[in-house]
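Discussion board: Methods & Data

I've been asked by a reviewer to show the raw model output for two of the constructs in my manuscript, not just the figures. I'm not sure how much to include, so I'm pasting the format here to get opinions. Each protein appears as its amino acid sequence followed by a line of discrete structure tokens. Is this the kind of thing reviewers expect to see in a supplement, or should I convert it first? Here is construct A:
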Amino acid sequence: MRRLLAELLAERSYEVLTTGTGETALRLHEEKPFDLMLVDWTLPGISGLDVCRAVRRRPNGEDIALLVVTGRDRPEDLHAVMDAGASDYIAKPIDPDMLRTRLLVATRLATAARRRRRGQQALLRAEEAFQRLVQSAPDAIYVTGADGVVAYANARLVDYLGFEGVDEVRGMTEEELVHPDDQPAVRAERIGALNAGQPTPPRELRLLRRDGHTVTGESVTIPLDFGGRASALRMIRDVTERKEMQAQLHLADRMASVGTLAAGVAHELNNPLAYVLSNLRLSREELERDLTPERVQLVKLQLEEAAHGARRMSDIVRDLKTFSRGDDEDQGAVDVPEVLASSINMCWNELRYRARLEKRIESIPVVRGNESRLGQVFLNLLINAAQAMPEDRAGENLIRVHAGTDDEGWAFVAIEDTGRGIAPELVGRIFDPFFTTKPVSEGTGLGLAICRNIVTQAGGELNVQSVVGEGTTFTVRLPPAHGMVPASRPLPAKPIDPSTVGRARVLVIDDEQLVGRSISRALRQHEVDVLSNGGEAIDRLSAPGGAGYDLIFCDLMMPEVSGMEVYEAVNAHYPRLAERFVFMTGGAFTPRARAFLEQVPNRCIDKPFDLALLREIAAEHVGTASRPPAAAMG
């Protein structure tokens, strides 16, 4: 039988070994594994079925084709053969054609098993390599399904977001890890990557640490098969330090622009300041003399001109404040014409001695962005336009500012000059950081690079067209912010007839004593107390009778004890009294002050304030101390 089977196998080019015992067969198989084994059921020693079981139990045992040769044909015998792990059986007497068929089927089954095992091993190795790669990656990585539930996270993500371990992150949703404003975009990216089967472009993403602080990362989402299901891998590179550096560069460039304009700003302030001081002195001189009706009218005129000059200086300071917010990255609705007007006002002294200015401001949509940084863009472009033209041709030079809505519905601002233009070989480089055609003392080469970065972050474009000898046009394009409304400036308060309102008890807290005095005079129909120290204010408001104030005007920033600390001390013990605070500020906000004003519901008014506004607020608070608390809303 062994010789017959050997001859039939030799016909198919098999290398054949034969033996008469199962023990020898297993020893030979141990020395050099067989691809195919034909085993008689009945053998001296262990049986053929025992050989099958022993082979299957060994590593890679499923890769072997096992055929049991038997003369038994009962159904239960055939079941026993298959239960022992045989691939098939061959009935005696052996039919050569049937043997060839069974050999073909058995070897194909064994080959498929080998391929399947190798595929599983390759998959296992790939998963192990994936885990080693992900765990050692310097970037934060997590994997989610289509539902956004985190199935896997690496150690860098855990450390980046301040969690204690991977198990704390696993099972959370992706949306729980990111800033609420970024959640819709994250969801859309995940679904889009899975549907398209393509990685998403890099984008900035704000994430929430376990302690509630926000960090910024650059994110890419990659679709992949994870654990047998379609999943999305998000890789996040920490760019918090890079963002801080960018913010510092933005501020440095902005301050460099303002520094360039310092002489012009001083000139714009000194002009109104000259006639403000002059008119005030002249009015005082008139008041020291006998007042005739003509002199009274003259004093009124001089004081009105002084007030006009003060308002002009206030507008200049307001425009300066637009550019003084160093670390403010908040995005909101921006009124482009208003920001553009502030930028023109800021550099007006630089422009008017260089060129004539033509403005055409058409209907323009509200855009989403940062008012301070967008103002920086316009300021830089206006200064560049002025400096591109010779100083001694102010009557011939021209700067055109055209703002409106283009055919796609986007807002645009085009700033055109009639200067020397930019050589074609340089146009492609002007937005590169540190590239400049100006002398070392006049430029860093960061201005245009920062401008393009600011515009790009707002979802827009900054383009340039230039012809040597004819001039250059820079065009800012920004997408409309549908449904957003910019914060409107408060309307001037209407004059109030003192006889129509009652008498309020008012406390004024301001370290500038002259400010306190002026408010006291403006509200002389009311009972006004003035304090110049935050610590004294806390003592006064904590003492018996302190809760009797109807209204408290409190300066936000004061030395030693700030207005914020006064409010917090009062709110801790007398929350109803804290509701009566109205804050005053000159606009020099610190990050803490901005965060404070965002958290408290109290009103804040800017200095210098309109006297009519102070009187209106005081009239609104008459009798506040005696009113019952507002009913709780269910």
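Construct B, same format:
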Amino acid sequence: MTGQITESKINEVRERSDIVELISQYVSLKRAGGNHVGLCPFHSEKSPSFSVNAARQFFHCFGCGVGGDVYSFLMKIEGLTFPDAVRRLAERAGIDLEERSLSPEEERRQEQRERLYALNGTAAAYFHRLLMEHPAGAPARDYMRQRGYGRKAAEEYQIGYSLPAWEDLQQHLTAQGCSAEDARTLGLVRPGKQDRGDYDLFRGRLIFPVYDLTGRVVAFAGRVLDEGKPKYINSPESPIYHKGRVLFGLYQARQAMRRSGEVILVEGYFDQLALYRAGFPQVVATCGTALTADHARLLKRYVQRVLLLFDQDSAGTQATFKAMRVLQAEGVPAAVITLPQGEDPDSFLRSYGGEAFSGLLAEARPVMDVYMEDALSDCTSIEEKVRAAEQIIEQIDELNSELEQDLYLKELARRSGIELDLLKRKRKQRNGKKSASVPLPDEYPLMRESGPAGNTVAPDRPAPTAMSRAEETLLGLLSCHAAARERFIASGGPELLIHPVAVTLAQLLIEDRGLENSDPQSLGEGLDPEMRDCWKKVCAVDRGAFGDDVDVLFDDCLLALERHRKKQQREEILTRIRRFEQLGEMEKAKDLLEEFKKLK
């Protein structure tokens, strides 16, 4: 069932869920007085700062500041939406949720999806059994051993093998009572021509199941055991699989990604397995496609930085820069790991080991640095250098921060030998925007760091002058949806907001229990003029535009606020770098640049 869950059911599920029991499935907890403590699953630490209070049914990490109830923990640890977290905990507690009935068409689609998931599970189990037990799977077992993989890796990923026969899987699925139409929908079998029967898509290949975030098999990839072509065959898209939204290994890697705050993005399935086996579990692979905006948004839920590790050839370089553009558009910082020429992650690890790879990881360079170096590397004439500079300026314009753009323009001037003022004028001519080197406002308060002659440096960020559109929309959601208020509290409450007036209004909204039976406009009575004006803007938001998918809109608002917060942090550091440069304190500027790179 899907639909709106009543507030009474949300409260009932929360009250009947033991937060200590839930978190103990993910974290090793020890009793310490009235609390339970352990290592935080959301950031890397050596001393436990993660505390769970059984009496209050609340958790808090004193290291990274994250906290909340059972819903917020499950949403963060599993990457679930609020309704999915409620459903998961309701199932654990044996509570039936009262949700609206599905329409006949919705029910048909839901039933089809459940059949497709079950069919993929049946196929995955069959492929796996062929690899692990069947005599005909010996060539695949030998191939795995030659590449350094045994039963452990095969079992953890449920790797399988497809027999080199035209109808083996099709006959097995039929014997299991699976629908031939569903098998065709998933692309596991294809209809034969000229009245011939269906035939298998995967034949004589090593099979990699692709999982969604809940651990269900949504697709497969098949690799040849020799040098045959094509090397890989992938499942086509289906009602349960969209390759632009799924990443191989994310189900296995998501917890390690949260702890490290970064992810290594590779192209190949064996590349992902090799890094995972070598002690770098924060690794995922694209499923036979280029990185998409949906991929970037998915990764952004787990990490603060993406490390790109593609093939060290021309095609890999182009894939790296294409991924750079996608990640920049979503505000996700990226860096590049460079391997020796001719090596891939699998071969490098076999030759040099994990310690050597850790060194490469530490030396990862911001992707814009690599892009700039590549664009300028082959320039043998003035004309080529000018064209390269124009391409770099175009990419610099895609950065979210003007201060970051300013920094890279200076770096371009240094590397290209072109005067900085000329580059700025060229940028103005290209897009009509102001130069990135805008003088800092005189009214900015100065931070307390001393430069020469006692001058203070690095203006701090002023308080925002107006609420953002995301804050206005989020407050509008809180004013008319009880479920949004519950999720807002579970996700962190007013601390999620940036503008001080928005924080105050949010607090009023979540404290006003009679809101459903009153006019939202009435909440503005008694407020001071500034707050009343802001509240009028919130009330003017079109509630009808929210639609039924409140959770998606809620997620979008939180993402926009988090992006803005990260942007502010970057701009604050870059502002300080500029001021130190103005004062001639180049060593301090250099130290801050390293801090900026770590933040990226």
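Answer (T.O., handling editor elsewhere):
This is acceptable in a supplement if you add a one-line summary per construct. For B, something like: The chain has five domains: 7-93, 110-241, 245-367, 378-431, 442-600.
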